[in-house]
Structure formats: structure tokens, C-alpha cells
């Protein structure tokens, strides 16, 4: 049976990009279905009735939602070019950091953007970033995944590209470069990976979008 | 001992880990921590969240109950918790995450709810439970001790703690009209031997959270 892979997403979404990067790592061909978030398709509502959000991956008619769940699914369903570590403990650590990024870090940095760089908010975002900086320092590798990117790198991608675009839009610095040398180096390495480079949205459109989103017109 | 579990008796997240270890017949040392006076061990093992549960296996600590469950499932191969099929696995992970993302903030809110906000919050909780009911396959038999899965462990505590909230706040959450399948599922699964053995005593839980609620809703 021919494989059918569709991705309902929105160009520029950091969560949608996670899925595209994972599909790229595995070399999977897929149809990208651009969703209008103000006019969601009946298919999207059918495939993700719980959250009604993108991204949703549909593999041979089976829908999967939630970006981290999708990335792990991609790793389970297609062998070769592993995204998750092999060792059970390393896997647990990868899942832990992915969860941390989504539950602690991204909300903290988003708050700093919403407040246009309120000092307390930047401080809190930096506190969360320090954990990730330490993780890179301790491991001493190019990526969170070692020589190759893994689930954590994919989730942390927000820092490498989207955070910078939001900072530019608002004219603020949240990811204080000199405070986080390992992360800064990681950002550069990450955005230069072929599988990542090919999937990043145009920076100017993202900056313009963030200017609108955070009310800095 | 090779396996240590840091926990607090009232935590549903600790309960999840206890269930997984129990189902797999894993021997472990349980260490009760003090939520008001966190041990240096906890702060050392989980500096990011400073929370239980923390599982320590051969000196290596890990946190976050669902992450721990997956680890346990990989290390101890008997009584597999997650399905083999990638799509079914993804389904299990999705619903476990749903409970954490939607139900947990709701229960946190309910534990501090004032009487004027109660009915609204109860309505929202019933909606979340209705959605959760969608995770159940009406054609599938109810789980037994020997077939309890990752998803069952991730969800079962919701029934117990919801019953506790109903008593504490005098609200209807597990409405047989709203969620008949879910209610039956909870009734059956909460009665399973291995589950009953791990649940904290209901009255102790009710007293504990009633006091908590009073402390957080009484003007000082």
C-alpha cells in the first residue's frame, strides 16, 4: 500500500516546524496542508476534535496531534535516523527536557515578549534558560542529542529562531547572548543543520507577524 | 536498594509510579518526602521542579511521572504498559498528556475554589471529563489487573480524586448522564486489587484536602 502522509499545519508555526524537521530527518515525503487558523478546515476539526489545533499528522488516515507526541510517533513508525536516544535513561532525560521546554521555558519567554521585556519576566525566562545552558555545558556536545539533533534540539528550536525574531520585533534582548555562550553556539549549529534550514520560515515575515502579535506596530 | 521512589502519600503522580512498579513486581525503597520541608535529596535529584515523584535507579534520578512510566516500561519488560503499535502508543501518550494539561490545572483550581466560583468550575470539570470519556473505546472490555496499561495508569487517579472533590465541595462532577462510560470505567478499575492496594486512604485524602481548601479560601 502506498504510504500517505499529510501534515495539517501553519507555515511559520514553531510546533508545526518540529514535525517537518522530524519528517525531514527520516526522509519522509508528505503533503503540507496549510490551515487558516481563523477558518479551520473540517478535516482538522475531525482529526483533532479535542484541541482543534495544528500540527496534526495524518498517516494512512490515522491522525496524531500534539507536536512532541507526533515527533515520537515519527520515530516509532519509521526506522533509521533515530530521533530518540537508544539508552532508556537518556530517553527519559530527553523527554524530561522536551516537557520542560514546553511547560516552563516557552511560557516564561512568551510572558517576557507579551510584557515587551519587563525586567522580572526576562529574569524568569533567563532562569529557565540557565537549566538548558547547564545541560549543554555538562554534556559538552554540539547538540542536546550529541553529534546529531534529537527530540530536545527539535523542541528547543524555538530559542534558535523564533525567540530571535520576537526579540527583533520588540527591540529587546531576552536570550542574553553573553550569559548563554553554549546556547548561542547551539543556536548557530542548530539553524545550520540541513534538515532545519530547509524548514525555517522567512525571518522578515516572522518578525512582522510578531510585531503584530505583541502589539508593537 | 537499586530502585528508590521519592514521593508524598497524597500525590496522584506518585500513585502512577507506584502502580507501574507494582504491576511489574519491581522491588523498591519508598521514601516519603515532606511537601512543606523538601529534603535535600529531592532538591538534589530534581533541581528543576523540586517535586515528587522522583525515581532513582542505580543512582540515576528521573522526574515527571509519565517520563518515569515510560522508563519503567523499557527497563522491566514483563507486563508491558505501552502498546507495540506506534499509532496506539501515540494515542496513549496523547490522552495521558491531556489529563496533565487539562484536568490537573482544573483540580488545582478546584482545591482553591470559592463558593461563588464553584458551580462554574464544576461545569468546566464536567466538560473536561466528557472529553476524557472520548478516550475510551466502548467496544473494548474493561481492564483487569493483568491488562492494566500506561493509559489506564495515567487516567485512573482522576476518578478517585474527582470523587474526593465531589465530597469536599458538594458538587456533581462524575454525572452518570454526562459521562456514563467513564463513570463505569472508574468504578470497575478503582476496584481492581492492584489499584486498591496503591490508593491512599479516601478519608485521609478527603481530610487532607478539605484542610488545604479551608486554608486557601479563608480570609486571614
Structure in words:
The complex is a heterodimer of chains A (217) and B (220). Chain A is an alpha+beta fold and 217 residues long. Helices cover 57% and strands 8% of the residues of chain A. Chain A contains nine helices and four strands, in the order E-H-E-H-E-E-H-H-H-H-H-H-H. Chain A is globular, with a radius of gyration of 17 Å. Chain A starts with a strand and ends with a helix. Chain B has 220 residues and is of the alpha+beta class. Chain B has two domains: 3-75, Glutaredoxin (3-Layer(aba) Sandwich), CATH 3.40.30.10; 86-217, Glutathione S-transferase Yfyf (Class Pi), Chain A, domain 2, CATH 1.20.1050. Helix content of chain B is 55%, strand content 8%. Chain B has nine helices and four strands. Chain B has a four-stranded mixed β-sheet with strand order 2-1-3-4, covered by helices on one side. Chain B is globular, with a radius of gyration of 17 Å. Chain B starts with a strand and ends with a helix. The mean pLDDT of chain B is 96. Chains A and B meet through strand 4, helix 3 and helix 4 of A and strand 4, helix 3 and helix 4 of B.
Task: Produce a short descriptive summary.
The complex is a heterodimer of chains A (217) and B (220). Chain A has helices at 14-26, 42-47, 67-77, 88-114, 119-139, 151-170, 181-191, 194-197, 203-213, and strands spanning 5-9, 31-34, 56-59, 62-65.
Largest sheet geometry of chain B: 4 strands, mixed
Identify the most extensive interface between protein chains: A-B, 25 and 23 residues
In helices, the fraction of residues of chain B equals 55-70%
Counting helices, strands and paired strands, the structural category of chain A is alpha+beta
GO molecular function (chain A): glutathione transferase activity
EC number (chain A): 2.5.1.18
Catalytic activity (chain A): RX + glutathione = an S-substituted glutathione + a halide anion + H(+)
Domain GST C-terminal (chain A): 87-214
Amino acid at each position: 500500500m502506498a504510504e500517505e502522509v499529510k501534515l495539517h499545519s501553519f507555515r511559520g508555526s514553531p510546533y508545526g516546524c518540529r514535525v517537518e524537521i522530524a519528517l525531514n530527518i527520516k526522509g519522509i515525503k508528505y503533503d503540507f496542508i496549510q490551515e487558516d487558523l481563523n477558518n479551520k478546515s473540517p478535516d482538522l476539526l475531525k482529526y483533532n476534535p479535542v484541541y482543534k489545533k495544528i500540527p496534526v499528522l495524518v498517516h494512512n488516515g490515522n491522525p496524531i496531534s500534539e507536536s512532541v507526541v507526533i515527533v515520537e510517533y515519527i520515530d516509532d513508525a519509521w526506522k533509521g535516523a533515530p530521533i530518540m536516544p537508544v539508552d532508556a535513561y537518556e530517553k527519559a532525560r530527553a523527554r524530561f527536557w522536551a516537557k520542560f521546554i514546553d511547560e516552563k521555558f516557552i511560557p516564561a519567554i512568551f510572558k517576557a515578549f507579551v510584557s515587551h521585556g519587563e525586567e522580572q519576566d526576562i529574569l524568569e525566562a533567563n532562569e529557565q534558560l540557565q537549566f538548558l545552558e547547564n545541560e549543554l555545558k555538562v554534556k559538552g556536545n554540539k547538540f542536546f542529542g550529541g553529534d546529531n539533533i534529537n527530540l530536545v534540539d527539535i523542541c528547543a528550536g524555538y530559542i534558535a529562531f523564533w525567540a530571535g525574531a520576537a526579540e527583533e520585533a520588540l527591540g529587546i534582548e531576552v536570550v542574553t547572548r553573553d550569559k548563554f555562550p553554549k546556547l548561542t553556539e547551539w543556536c548557530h549549529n542548530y539553524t545550520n543543520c540541513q534538515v532545519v534550514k530547509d524548514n525555517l520560515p522567512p525571518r522578515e515575515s516572522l518578525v512582522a507577524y510578531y510585531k503584530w502579535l505583541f502589539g508593537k506596530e | 536498594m537499586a530502585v528508590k521512589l521519592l514521593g508524598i502519600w497524597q500525590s496522584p503522580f506518585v500513585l502512577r509510579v507506584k502502580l507501574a512498579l507494582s504491576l511489574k513486581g519491581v522491588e523498591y525503597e519508598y521514601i516519603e518526602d515532606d511537601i512543606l520541608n523538601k529534603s535535600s535529596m529531592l532538591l538534589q535529584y530534581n533541581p528543576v521542579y523540586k517535586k515528587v515523584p522522583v525515581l532513582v535507579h542505580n543512582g540515576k534520578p528521573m522526574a515527571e511521572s509519565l517520563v518515569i512510566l515510560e522508563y519503567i516500561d523499557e527497563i522491566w519488560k514483563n507486563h508491558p504498559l505501552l502498546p507495540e503499535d506506534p499509532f496506539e502508543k501515540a494515542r496513549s501518550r496523547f490522552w495521558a498528556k491531556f489529563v496533565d494539561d487539562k484536568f490537573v490545572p482544573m483540580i488545582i483550581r478546584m482545591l482553591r475554589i470559592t463558593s461563588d466560583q464553584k458551580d462554574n468550575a464544576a461545569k468546566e470539570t464536567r466538560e473536561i471529563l466528557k472529553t476524557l470519556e472520548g478516550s475510551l473505546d466502548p467496544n473494548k472490555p474493561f481492564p483487569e489487573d493483568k491488562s492494566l496499561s500506561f493509559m489506564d495508569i495515567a487516567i485512573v487517579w482522576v476518578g478517585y480524586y474527582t470523587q474526593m472533590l465531589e465530597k469536599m465541595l458538594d458538587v456533581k462532577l462524575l454525572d452518570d448522564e454526562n459521562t456514563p462510560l467513564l463513570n463505569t470505567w472508574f468504578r470497575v478499575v478503582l476496584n481492581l486489587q492492584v489499584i486498591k492496594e496503591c490508593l491512599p486512604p479516601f478519608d485521609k485524602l478527603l481530610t487532607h484536602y478539605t484542610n488545604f481548601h479551608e486554608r486557601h479560601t479563608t480570609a486571614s
